[in-house]
Amino acid sequence: MATRKKNSTYSRNENIIVECDLTYAVNKIGGRWKILILDKLAEKKMRFSELKHEFYYITERMLTLQLRAMEQDGLVKRTVYAEVPPRVEYELTEMALEFGPIFKQLSAWGGKHRDLTKKDIV
Question: 46-47 and 87-92: which strand pairing?
């Protein structure tokens, strides 16, 4: 993945936007796949191959990029074992575990409002 210039408009705007606590939090879990990956890792530690199997619809490259981003953000801990073949496990950090109750509330809200929206359409 290409790196962004530090003085690009996007980078400057991002620095300003993350001054807001809510925007900072959403920025950490933003993206199409991060919440799904975090939710799955909340259940247990998983190897990369298990995650790849679980999220078969995500390309291997995208899964790798998302895991690396979450590792850099301190949400996921990556452990490499000195074995042949190499074994890599991913687990949530304490910081990421704090999202658990928030995700449950978001899920309940999403289910409620998705159902209401469906009723309105029919």
Answer: antiparallel
